[in-house]
Amino acid sequence: MKILDLKTSNRCELMDITSRVAQVVGDKKIKDGICIVFCPHTTAGLTINENADPAVKKDIINHLKKVVPEGNNFLHSEGNSDAHIKASMMGNSLNIIINNGKLVLGTWQGIYFCEFDGPRNRKIYIKVL
Ligand code: ZN
Fold first, then answer.
1. Which helix H or strand E contains 8, and what residues bound it?
2. 101/119 Cα distance (integer angstroms)
3. Å from CA of 78 to ligand 1 middle
């Protein structure tokens, strides 16, 4: 298993980690397989979405903030329940097909680490099978 260290710089952000995941897959020299990316945090998640127009990730963040606003109308005493909810909405793992040694992604797709309670030092786990 490979661990990647990430450093986020905002409370909410989508960090494009496509090239870093692709590097891990490339280093393994596995021609056909599966890459599992796992987020071990409860206030951050993972998603695959458009990486061509940067407005898309801004729209995703802005809309998530509207749907689940930060605030104190939650029971959880830590005060970051909005971040827990957003993390669950995104999910905490991805399975990506590896074909001919490369991640199979759509033309406009990128892999994003989704920070909802940053800035923080974070980790993701990557397993290539
Ligand atoms: Zn919490």
1. none
2. 33
3. 5
**CATH classification number, 2-128, choose in 2.170.150.70, 2.60.40.60, 2.60.120.460, 2.60.40.10:** 2.60.120.460
Q: What is the pLDDT of residues 12-53, one digit of tens each?
A: 999 999 999 999 999 999 999 999 999 999 999 999 999 999
Distance from Cα 86 to the centre of ligand 1, integer Å? 12
CA distance 79 to 98: 40
- Work out the percent of the chain whose per-residue pLDDT is above 70: 100
Q: Could you tell me the pTM of the whole model?
A: 0.96
Distance 114 CA to ligand 1 centre (A): 16
- Tell me the one-letter amino acid at 51: N
pLDDT at 104 over 90: yes
